[in-house]
C-alpha cells in the first residue's frame, strides 16, 4: 500500500509524466530515440552526424556548441545530439546524457597519440549515472586513412571486453566516405528494437 | 464520466495556458533570454542552460496551476492525451509546454521570438526616422538571389564605395590645397551636400548658366580674397558645420571647374550606372558652382532667390536648397569687407527677427501666421516664413536647427528682408535632410540585419537591390 501524497515533487512529474504527455501530444506513432554522439575533438562526430543526415561533409568546422539532427531509420526517429569534443567543452557533456537511449562514441583511429585520452573519456562516460546500462556504439572512424588502426586493436586498447553491464559494439567506418556508417546504424536499430520491445 | 472529466480538465488547462498567470512569465522569460538564439545551424551550449531554466519555470507554473485547480498529474495526463487536446488548434496552445521536453521546439520558439523582437525594433526605427532605406523595402520584392551571392555582391559594393570614397577624399584634399582654405570639415558629409546640390540644381542651371561665364572673370579676384574671407566665414558659421562644408566645397568646386566634374562623373558612374541623382550631379554641379564666382553676387543672387522663392510652392524644398546653395557661398567669397560688415549687421537683424518669430510661434500658432507676413514684406517670402515657423513649431529639434542656421544665413542675401526667410527655410529643409542621411548610414547596418531577419522569417532567399543600397551608401 503506497500513499500518494499530492502534490508530488514536480520533477518526478516533469521527468515522467510530462514526457509521456508530450510524446502523445506530438501524435507521432514513430518511436523516438535519443542518441548522444561523443568523442574527442577532431574525431569526426559532426562529419558522422552530417553523413547520417546525408548532408555535405566538406564544410565542417570545429563544433563550439552542439548539433542536433533527426534521422528516420527503421521506422524510428533517431534524434542525434552531437556535442563538441574540445577539452573545454567536455565538462558540458554530462548535461546532455539524461534520457539517453544510446551512446555513440567516435574515435579517430589514426590519432594513436590520443588513444589513452579517448579511452579515459569513454570510461568516465560509462560510469555516468545517466548512462547506466545504455548501449554504446564505438565508431573507429577515419579508416580511410592509411595510418588508421584496425577496430579490433582499438577495442582491445579500450578494454571493451570488460563491459558487462551493457550492449556494446565497435564499428570501423569512414564518416567521409560513409563506409561502415550504415552498418553501425543497423546495429543501433536492431539493438534499440530489441531493448525497447 | 471519464470523458467529461477530461473535457473539463482540458478546457481548464487551455484556459490556463491563455491566462496572464501563464502567458506573462513565459513571455517575459522568452523575451529576456531569446537574444542569444540565432538561426545558426549549430547550437550554443548556453541554449541548454536556458532550456533548463525554462523547464523549471514551466514546472513551477504547472505545479502551481494543478494545486490551484485541484487536479493531479494523472488527470493532467489523461486530459492532455484525450482526443480533444490532440486537435490541431490546441496543439499550438500546447507548444510552450511541449517546448519543455523538446529542445528543437524550444529553440524554434526562441529563435522566432528573437526575430520578432528585432523586427519590432526595426519598426520602431522606421517610425522614428520616417522611412527605412529604400533598399530595405526593395529587399522584399527583389528577393531572387541567394544570400551567399548577396553577401559577395555586398562586399564588392562596399569595396567599391570605399575606393570611391578614398578617391573623392584625395581629390578633395587636392582641391582644398588649391583653394588654400585651411578650414577643414568632416569630409564624409560632403558627398551628401553635393548630392543635394545636384538634386536642387536641376531647376537652377538655366538661370545660372549665364553667370557661369562671369565666374572666369571673378576668379582672379576671388582667389586673392578667399584667403581673407574664408576664416571669417568660418567664424560666422561655426555653429553650422554644414554651411562651412558647403562653402568650402563650393569654392573648391569652383576652382576645379570642369575638370572636376569630369572626374566626378567618372567616379560616380562606376558604381551606380543607373542611379539618377548621381548622373545629374556630375552634369549639374558646374552650373551650381557658377554663381559662386559671379562678379556681382548680390545682384545675381537676389533675382535668383526671388525667382526661386516665387516658384517655391511648386518645388519648394528643391529650389530652396538650390537657392541656399547659391546664396551661401557667393557673397562670402565675393564681398568686400564692408559688405561683409553689412551682412553681419543683417545677420544680427535676422537673428532678432527669428527670435521674434519663435516667440510669436510659441504664443500662438495662428497669430504667428498673421504676424509673420508683417515682418517680412515680400509675399513670396511670407509663405516660406510661415512654413518655417510651422515646421519649427512642430518639431523642437528643427527650431534649434533653424536657430543655428540663422546665424549663417544672413550673409548671402543683399536685401535683409526678402531673402532671410527663404534662406532660413531652406536651411531648415536641408538640415533634417542631412540628419536623415547620417541616420541612414546607421540604418543601413540595421537594415542588413533586417534583411537577414526577413529572409529567415519569410523563408525565402532574397536579394536586396544593391544599386539602391549603393546609392544610399553614397549619399
Automatic annotation (TrEMBL), chain A:
An example Gene Ontology CC term for this record: Golgi membrane
Keyword line: Golgi apparatus, GTP-binding, Lipoprotein, Magnesium, Metal-binding, Myristate, Nucleotide-binding, Protein transport, Transport
Protein's cellular compartments: Cytoplasm, Cytoskeleton, Microtubule organizing center, Centrosome; Golgi apparatus membrane
Endpoints of the signal sequence: none
Primary localization: cytoplasm
Statement: the UniProt record of this protein carries the keyword Ribosomal protein: no
PANTHER family named in the record: ADP-RIBOSYLATION FACTOR-LIKE PROTEIN 2-RELATED (PTHR45697)
Name recorded for this polypeptide: ADP-ribosylation factor-like protein 3
Gene designation: arl3l1
UniProtKB/TrEMBL annotation, chain B:
Compositionally biased tracts (Low complexity): 371-397
Subcellular location per the Swiss-Prot or TrEMBL entry: Cell projection, Cilium; Cytoplasm
Start-end of Pro residues biased regions: 409-423
Gene3D superfamilies: ADP-ribosylation factor-like 2-binding protein, domain
Basic and acidic residues bias spans: 431-441
Stretch list, region Disordered: 169-324, 361-448
Compositionally biased tracts (Polar residues): 193-211, 221-240, 264-281
Entry keyword set: Cell projection, Cilium, Coiled coil, Cytoplasm
Keyword flag Coiled coil: yes
Protein name: Cilia- and flagella-associated protein 36
Organism: Sparus aurata
UniProt gene name: CFAP36
Amino acid at each position: 500500500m503506497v500513499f500518494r501524497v499530492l502534490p508530488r515533487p514536480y520533477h518526478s512529474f516533469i521527468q515522467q509524466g510530462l514526457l509521456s504527455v508530450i510524446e502523445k501530444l506530438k501524435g507521432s506513432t514513430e518511436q523516438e530515440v535519443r542518441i548522444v554522439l561523443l568523442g574527442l575533438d577532431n574525431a569526426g562526430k559532426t562529419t558522422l552526424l552530417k553523413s547520417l543526415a546525408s548532408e555535405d561533409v566538406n564544410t565542417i568546422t570545429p563544433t563550439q556548441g552542439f548539433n542536433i539532427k533527426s534521422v528516420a531509420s527503421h521506422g524510428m526517429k533517431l534524434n542525434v545530439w552531437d556535442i563538441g569534443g574540445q577539452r573545454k567543452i567536455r565538462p558540458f557533456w554530462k548535461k546532455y546524457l539524461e534520457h539517453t537511449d544510446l551512446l555513440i562514441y567516435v574515435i579517430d583511429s589514426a590519432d594513436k597519440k590520443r588513444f589513452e585520452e579517448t579511452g579515459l573519456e569513454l570510461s568516465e562516460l560509462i560510469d555516468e549515472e545517466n548512462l547506466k546500462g545504455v548501449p554504446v556504439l564505438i565508431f573507429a572512424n577515419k579508416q580511410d586513412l592509411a595510418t588508421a588502426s584496425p577496430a579490433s586493436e582499438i577495442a582491445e586498447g579500450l578494454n571493451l571486453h570488460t563491459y558487462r553491464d551493457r550492449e556494446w559494439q565497435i564499428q570501423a567506418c569512414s564518416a567521409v566516405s560513409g563506409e561502415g556508417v550504415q552498418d553501425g546504424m543497423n546495429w543501433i536499430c536492431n539493438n534499440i528494437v530489441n531493448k525497447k520491445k | 464520466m471519464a470523458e467529461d472529466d477530461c473535457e473539463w480538465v482540458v478546457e481548464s488547462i487551455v484556459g490556463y495556458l491563455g491566462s496572464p498567470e501563464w502567458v506573462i512569465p513565459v513571455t517575459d522569460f522568452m523575451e529576456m533570454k531569446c537574444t542569444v538564439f540565432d538561426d545558426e545551424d549549430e547550437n550554443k551550449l548556453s541554449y541548454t542552460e536556458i532550456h533548463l531554466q525554462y523547464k523549471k519555470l514551466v514546472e513551477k507554473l504547472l505545479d502551481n496551476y494543478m494545486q490551484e485547480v485541484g487536479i493531479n498529474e494523472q488527470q493532467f495526463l489523461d486530459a492532455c492525451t484525450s482526443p480533444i487536446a490532440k486537435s490541431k488548434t490546441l496543439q499550438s496552445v500546447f507548444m510552450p509546454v511541449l517546448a519543455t521536453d523538446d529542445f528543437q521546439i524550444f529553440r524554434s520558439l526562441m529563435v522566432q521570438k528573437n526575430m520578432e523582437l528585432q523586427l519590432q525594433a526595426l519598426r520602431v526605427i522606421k517610425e522614428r526616422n520616417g522611412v527605412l532605406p529604400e533598399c530595405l523595402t526593395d529587399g522584399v520584392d527583389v528577393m531572387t538571389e541567394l544570400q551567399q551571392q548577396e553577401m559577395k555582391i555586398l562586399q564588392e559594393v562596399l569595396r567599391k564605395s570605399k575606393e570611391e570614397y578614398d578617391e573623392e577624399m584625395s581629390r578633395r584634399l587636392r582641391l582644398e590645397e588649391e583653394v588654400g582654405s585651411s578650414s577643414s570639415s568632416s569630409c564624409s558629409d560632403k558627398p551628401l551636400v553635393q548630392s543635394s546640390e545636384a538634386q536642387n540644381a536641376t531647376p537652377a542651371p538655366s538661370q545660372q548658366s549665364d553667370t557661369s561665364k562671369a565666374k572666369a572673370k571673378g576668379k582672379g579676384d576671388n582667389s586673392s580674397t578667399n584667403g581673407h574671407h574664408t576664416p571669417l566665414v568660418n567664424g560666422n558659421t561655426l555653429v553650422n558645420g554644414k554651411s562651412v562644408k558647403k562653402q568650402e566645397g563650393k569654392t573648391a568646386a569652383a576652382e576645379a571647374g570642369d575638370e572636376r566634374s569630369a572626374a566626378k562623373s567618372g567616379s560616380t558612374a562606376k558604381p551606380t550606372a543607373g542611379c539618377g541623382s548621381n548622373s545629374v550631379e556630375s552634369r549639374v554641379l558646374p552650373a551650381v558652382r557658377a554663381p559662386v564666382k559671379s562678379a556681382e553676387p548680390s545682384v545675381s543672387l537676389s533675382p535668383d532667390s526671388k525667382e526661386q522663392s516665387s516658384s517655391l510652392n511648386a518645388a519648394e524644398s528643391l529650389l530652396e536648397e538650390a537657392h541656399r546653395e547659391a546664396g551661401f557661398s557667393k557673397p562670402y567669397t565675393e564681398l568686400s569687407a564692408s559688405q561683409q560688415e553689412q551682412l553681419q549687421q543683417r545677420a544680427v537683424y535676422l537673428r532678432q527677427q527669428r527670435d521674434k518669430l519663435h516667440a510669436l510661434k510659441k504664443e500662438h500658432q495662428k497669430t504667428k501666421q498673421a504676424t509673420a507676413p508683417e515682418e517680412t514684406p515680400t509675399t513670396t517670402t511670407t509663405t516660406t516664413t510661415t512654413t518655417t515657423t510651422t515646421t519649427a513649431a512642430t518639431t523642437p529639434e528643427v527650431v534649434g536647427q533653424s536657430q543655428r542656421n540663422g546665424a549663417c544665413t544672413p550673409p548671402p542675401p543683399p536685401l535683409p528682408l526678402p531673402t532671410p526667410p527663404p534662406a532660413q527655410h531652406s536651411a531648415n529643409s536641408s538640415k533634417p535632410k542631412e540628419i536623415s542621411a547620417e541616420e541612414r548610414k546607421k540604418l543601413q547596418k540595421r537594415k542588413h540585419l533586417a534583411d537577414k531577419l526577413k529572409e529567415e522569417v519569410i523563408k525565402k532567399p532574397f536579394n536586396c537591390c544593391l544599386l539602391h543600397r549603393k546609392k544610399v551608401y553614397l549619399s
